[in-house]
Known about the structure:
Blueprint: E1 12-18, H1 24-32, E2 50-56, E3 60-66, H2 74-88, E4 93-99, H3 106-117, E5 122-127, H4 134-143, E6 149-151, H5 160-168, H6 171-174, E7 190-194, H7 208-219, E8 223-227, H8 232-238, E9 245-248, H9 253-259, E10 266-268, H10 269-277, H11 280-287, E11 298-302, H12 314-327, E12 332-336, E13 350-353, H13 361-373, E14 378-380, H14 381-388, H15 392-401
Amino acid sequence: MSLQETVSAERIHIAWFGMRNAGKSSLVNAVTGQDISIVSNVPGTTTDPVRKAMELLPLGPVLILDTPGLDDIGELGAMRVARTNRILAQTDIAVLAVDAAAGFSELDRELISEFTARKLPFAVAFTKADLADEKTRELRAKETEELKFIFTSTVTLEGIHELKELLGSFAPQVAKEKRIVTDLFAPGSTVVLVTPIDSSAPKGRLILPQQLVLRELLDAHCQAFVCQPEELAGVLAILREPPALVITDSQAFAKVNAVVPGDVKLTSFSILFARYKGNLASLVAGAEAIDRLKPGDKVLIAEGCTHHRQCEDIGTVKLPGWLEKRIGFRPEFAFTSGGDFPENLSDYALVIHCGGCTLPEREMQRRLEIAGTAAIPMTNYGVAIAYMNGILARSLSVFQEA
Length: 402
């Protein structure tokens, strides 16, 4: 997968915040070199977050996010501000655009406090600097002396290159080298991927976790064998040596477990992502809450992506069915997808989340934090399915040995 093909969830998210008409969108256009945001003197022109994937060295693949103004008004304005706050949870680097002449608003200062509390790298970009006299510049510099700031102008292009350089300086803080699976065995190992193709599988492609794992294996010069559950026994039979690991789609766990010899390591894509983007230990502990469910309890099943539901959908059909079979009754279920996730989980006895492959790591961590703060057990699809099939210990052994 080339840098240009890097999926959004794997990119460094750089979000631009500020008051209405502070010049955010003009600045975004200047930095990206493209007219990705509509620019107007009318306050509130940006009504929804605007996204642009690009490459910004030395950061690498990034996702630029232009957000509505912090001071948007009215009922729709409140909804836009709420969406802006949601973007904040996904942000790796923030840029606060402040009109150099107007200076900091109270909302700007509150946002700086929020950046600091979240330990979020950020820069202040004083916009429209071509209209600010020397005295104003000195005042703004004094107000911001403890922060990283740049004076910018989209008219004269002052500070645009310097802003890019400043963003690049955050690379050591955000460009972390993480691996999904190849740290668990030696380079060049043989790995088998079990990828069911049923009515819920996307047409003409593999799902994202399978794509990312396969590419990482190829980058590590591993031998990757890909098959459906029905072909697994045949694939294992033609291998001269047992594979270092078998990775399966979680919904095929029971079938695959019955085929893979006990001395061969087995786990699932979802469990790999529990470690990669979440907190594996916490999600494993959350699975134990399945057997503590009582009639009348409410279970939230959450997915990070949005897709058309099929008759064999794992989140809304298979998981509820397996859970009911395990505990002997049907709890009340609620479902969320995409960017929707409740801030208040007090109504729920358990949260079962997908692997989060389409979510930025910060967003996945935020959801875990919400559950942890509310003391609501949270697990994920793969962990829960392995637990209900009695093979969780086997599915975790590859991590323990590594």
